[in-house]
Amino acid sequence: EPLTAEQRQSFQGRWEEIRERAAQVAELDPELLVGALREIGDIRLQGSSTAAGAGVAPQEDAQPATIQWEEADRMVQNWAEQHEHPTMERIKELHRVLASGQENNNGEAGQLRDAPSPPMGKNAYFIPGTHVSQAMAEFVRWYNEEVSKSEGERMPPVELAAKV
């Protein structure tokens, strides 16, 4: 469900506050900001039942899900620190890290699905396998278009992250 204008304005205001405070911290101590962002990421991981391995049936030789999620988190943080945006190759690499060795991965980790997915309940929708490649290319195009907009036209980062 799309955000209302009021919600968007509220998120935008809060984001501006966060960005200003982060800039202040970065001026005083850039390493403090990097450390704080990493600590926030660690806290997020601790609250994730998926990262804790719930609902995942690893193969005998697979890394625990927690290690995979931590590795993926480091990759994404590195991309963010380098101001690198999602690309098809980065998305595939992220999937390779997260899905390698997991029994519930019916395809090859790091590759786009081209087969149908089994039904997952009434609230889940999966793009048909034959359309995944096209949908992912459209997503990358949309994302790059969105982030290339001028400051006043682009979505607040919180909304963009929610849509992603």
UniProtKB/TrEMBL annotation:
Annotated spans, Disordered: 100-121
InterPro entries xrefs: Fido-like_dom_sf
Protein name: Fic family protein
Record organism: Streptomyces sp. SID7499
